[in-house]
């Protein structure tokens, strides 16, 4: 793989993009999990799929179209994020209903656009499950820019985000502009999902935002540790997933998610063994 990495730009682009996605997906995913909004990634990913299908349709009908499916996917994801935020305001007592509404809309639009584009082809397949050779130089630059935006957003608004995630009412009383930060947060989430689809795929992107977080929560002793461990687990999953995907010639999305799930399983097993050993040690000390 090293020779291929040195000789092929697409492989290098995919690897660099994977490292960036392994950073920003768990970074924002930590806040999503704490906010109990894990399903929002699924909703936005299906809207992104509709955008990708629309882009492929337009590309097929208008070959000189400047925008790629990647760009239309980002646009649809941001629009979907804004619709979710608006629906949360409309249904204040039932805010979670916004996600299935947008998810259903995304699935419906995807089916229509894919059918109009004469079915699923290799392009849409790579968007669904990721690809080890799908990231162009332009895509990498766009993912790098998105990563910079997300990291800057979290660094500069860490305290308000932390407060809103754990105690929204207190945060509002403290003078934090909750509505603006919620708006920016969901837009950042849409951008992260859009950036991740090249590596993990639309159908599996939510796993990269939640599984590393679920793993780190079992061993972290603070919120900042949870973020750091989530990023570490995310990067490990991406590196192993891309490597195995290359050697076995399969979409990396599946191998990344399987690696994330195995890391979670090993961590849960380790904590269980640690718990049992601790009980036995306490019993011996009591005796």
Automatic annotation (TrEMBL):
This is Zinc transport system permease protein. It comes from Tenuibacillus multivorans. GO terms for cellular component: ATP-binding cassette (ABC) transporter complex. It is a multi-pass membrane protein. Its main location: membrane. The chain crosses the membrane at residues 15-34, 64-85, 97-120, 140-158, 227-248, 254-271. It is found in: Cell membrane; Membrane. Keywords: Membrane, Transmembrane, Transmembrane helix, Transport. It holds the Pfam family ABC-3. One of its GO terms (biological process) is response to zinc ion. Belongs to the ABC-3 integral membrane protein family. The keyword Transmembrane applies. InterPro entries: ABC_BtuC-like, ABC_TroCD.
């Amino acid at each position: 793989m090293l020779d291929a990495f040195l000789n092929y730009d697409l492989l290098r682009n995919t690897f660099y993009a994977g490292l960036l996605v392994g950073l920003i997906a768990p970074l924002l995913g930590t806040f999503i999990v704490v906010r109990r909004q894990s399903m929002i990634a699924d909703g936005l990913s299906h809207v992104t799929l509709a955008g990708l299908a629309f882009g492929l349709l337009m590309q097929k009908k208008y070959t000189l179209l400047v925008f790629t499916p990647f760009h239309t996917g980002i646009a649809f994801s941001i629009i979907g994020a804004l619709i979710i935020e608006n629906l949360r305001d409309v249904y204040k007592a039932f805010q979670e209903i916004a996600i299935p509404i947008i998810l259903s809309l995304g699935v419906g639009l995807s089916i229509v656009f894919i059918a109009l584009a004469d079915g699923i082809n290799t392009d849409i397949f790579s968007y669904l499950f990721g690809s080890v050779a799908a990231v162009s130089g332009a895509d990498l630059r766009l993912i790098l820019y998105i990563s910079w935006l997300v990291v800057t957003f979290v660094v500069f608004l860490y305290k308000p985000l932390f407060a809103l995630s754990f105690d929204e009412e207190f945060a509002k009383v403290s003078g934090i502009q909750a509505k603006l930060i919620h708006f920016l947060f969901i837009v950042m989430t849409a951008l992260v999902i859009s950036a991740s689809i090249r590596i993990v795929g639309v159908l599996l992107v939510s796993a990269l935002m939640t599984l590393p977080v679920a793993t780190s929560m079992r061993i972290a002793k603070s919120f900042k540790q949870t973020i750091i461990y989530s990023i570490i687990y995310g990067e490990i999953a991406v590196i192993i997933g891309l490597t195995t995907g290359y050697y076995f010639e399969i979409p990396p999305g599946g191998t990344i998610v399987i690696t994330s799930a195995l890391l979670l399983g090993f961590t849960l097993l380790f904590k269980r063994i640690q718990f049992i050993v601790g009980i036995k040690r306490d019993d011996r000390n009591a005796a």
